[in-house]
Amino acid sequence: DVKVTQSSRYLVKRTGEKVFLECVQDMDHENMFWYRQDPGLGLRLIYFSYDVKMKEKGDIPEGYSVSREKKERFSLILESASTNQTSMYLCASSMDRENYGYTFGSGTRLTVV
Amino acid sequence: GDSVTQMEGPVTLSEEAFLTINCTYTATGYPSLFWYVQYPGEGLQLLLKATKADDKGSNKGFEATYRKETTSFHLEKGSVQVSDSAVYFCALRNDYKLSFGAGTTVTVRA
Q: Which residues of chain B neighbour A100 with C-beta distances below 8 Å?
């Protein structure tokens, strides 16, 4: 069964820590995405990548960076975690075709204290 | 830019009731349209899709038809079950990006 795997389901970090969220897909998809989901705000795109070592800013990139050194892995980095980054983070991947949807991971619920 | 508008929830229904969730979109070109479902504590799962005008997507008793003339993609199910309780997201894809509606929370009571 094809899947997108996020390394942690729940994470608690302290303010100012550097946080790494890892995402791995086994479908050989070209495109990978990071979203955050907050009540009342829906899903907001943070960053996406359409190829290895390529990245593009989404709608809310401030305070985040990403890394894609291998095709199957896309990491989201919070350089200095803040309480307003407490959220559900969803990783997704997709083939590079417009009629394909995304496959999502189960999400990482991050709490910054 | 592209955008998706879906009806606000929450929606509460009794088992075996008819469900409709309205979705309209604004986009350039000819996007593909999707419905995703999110069960409590989980990520999003693709429910159904339609890739061109007049296509009907269907899955698990849910249906939606791509209506280009009304720029709509309404989700319907004839008889809901308690297990259909979830958040439903309408989405469109243009190029790389998938644009989501705000989500509609559906609760089905036994």
A: 32, 93
